[in-house]
Amino acid sequence: MKYSRLLICVLAIVSFCSCERDEDDKVGLTKFLIYDIADPPINSGGTDEIKCIGIDSENSIWVGLNPLIKHNGQFWETYGQDIFGERNCCVNDIDFDSNNNVWFGTYNGLFKNNGEAWESHFYIAEHPFHTTIRCVHCDYQDKVWFAKGGTGLVCYDGTDWTTFEYQNTFPGMHIQKIISDINGNIFIGCHDALYKYDGTEFIKFYFSKVKGENMNIQDLDFDKSGDLWISCRSNLLVLRNNEFIEIDTNDIQNPLWDDYNWVASSVAINNQNGEVVIGTWNTGIAFHNNQNTTFFRGNEFGIDSTHFQINELAFDLSNNLWIVTRFGKIIVYNEKGIKL
User: Fold this and answer.
1) CA distances from 250 to 124, 156, 283, 293, 295 (A)
2) pLDDT category, 21, cuts 50, 70, 90?
3) Which listed site, 130, 144, 192, 285, has its alpha carbon 20 to 30 Å from 252?
4) Strand partners, 96
5) Are 170 and 148 in contact (CB under 8 A)?
6) How far apart are CA 324 and CA 310, in angstroms?
7) What would you report as the CA-atom Rg of the chain, rounded to the nearest whole angstrom?
8) C-alpha span between 195 and 264 (Å, rounded)
């Protein structure tokens, strides 16, 4: 009798755990969520266009538009003119240093948040500083690199500001993205070409399908092998051993658009499986794994394809893919089920 009661208890516990696990599985089966910045729970009250997204080491989601919004795992917070000023508080780019300080490039200067206080930088050295910051990047030494007005390159080491003036010390035209490798090299994606700064000199890398055509780099990201993926105006490239490899994108291009109008606006690497995700402005989103490409258009997320123009992509710590668009939509996607 004792053994029978024990068996019944064990079976009851197993049954309870199984039911609880099944409920968890059901919760995680949702493959995508869509937030509209104009609707609850956000209600940002700002512009429709979302410029950028960044995910910190605590898995908080920072989304740059006008104003800035943040998802802390439970609810959305909004930061507006009280932080960024009245002229224009549009956030163009976001990055994080090793202490999880958040750096923001805006139309109204460079800003930093350490979790409690905000710092702003409007003037550098003894002269007025161009306040438009189009991109910002924190390297492995916690130096902050950013582009002032899209042309001049600036490095801040926590004490000193070093400026590489366009056509004087920095040859690139219209800086659009900055990234660094583990060796301390800085890669600057520009309208005309890709530049590498090794601490001493700038080295130019150039690729063009059409003679005389600029690269018009939109985004940069490294994979686990150290290969640099480059999304451009009309193609997707990999820089491997200082040589460009062009990724065939014919199968993901919208046949209604020609090569020139096809824009690979963003690229992100899934570090769990090495998959490369490509966001576009006029076609949709593609998942590329070196063997085949899976493609999604806007209507597969319940969005009009004409409004499914992607500005940036990012993976969070739970391997959810966050997609921000030019028209006020934030999409969270995970083929295995979203877990926030």
Assistant:
1) 46, 41, 12, 10, 12
2) very low
3) 192
4) 102
5) no
6) 6
7) 22
8) 19
* Residue 274 CB neighbours (<10 A): 12
Looking at the domain assignment, is residue 77 inside a domain?
no
Rounded-to-integer distance, Cα 113 and Cα 94, Å: 11
Tally the domains of the chain. Answer: 1
Alpha-carbon torsion (186, 188, 193, 199), positive or negative:
negative
Full residue range of the structural domain in which residue 23 is found: 1-30
- Cis omega (within 30 of 0) for bond into 67: yes
On whether the CB atoms of residues 231 and 266 are closer than 8 A, the answer is yes
What pTM did the predictor assign? 0.86
> Contact, 106 vs 118, CB < 8 A?
no
Contact 226, 235 (CB under 8 A): no
Q: Are 310 and 265 in contact (CB under 8 A)?
A: yes
Asked if residue 10 belongs to a domain, the reply is yes
Question: How many whole angstroms separate alpha carbon 277 and alpha carbon 270?
Answer: 8
**With 60 as the cut, is the pLDDT of residue 6 above it?**
no
Residue with tokens 């046949």: 255
Q: Grade residue 253 by pLDDT with cuts at 50, 70 and 90.
A: low
Measured CA to CA, the distance from residue 55 to residue 188 in angstroms comes to: 21
Cα-flanking dihedrals φ and ψ of residue 153, to 5°? Answer: -100, 130
- Residue reference for tokens 């893919």: 321
Residue 274 tokens, joined:
């090495």
* DSSP H helices in the chain: 2-27, 81-84
Query: Which residues is 77 bridged to in the sheet?
Result: 70
For residue 166, give the DSSP letter: B
For residue 192, tell me if it sits in a domain. Answer: no
Tell me, yes or no, whether 23 lies in a domain.
Answer: yes
Alpha helices in 180-263 (DSSP H): none
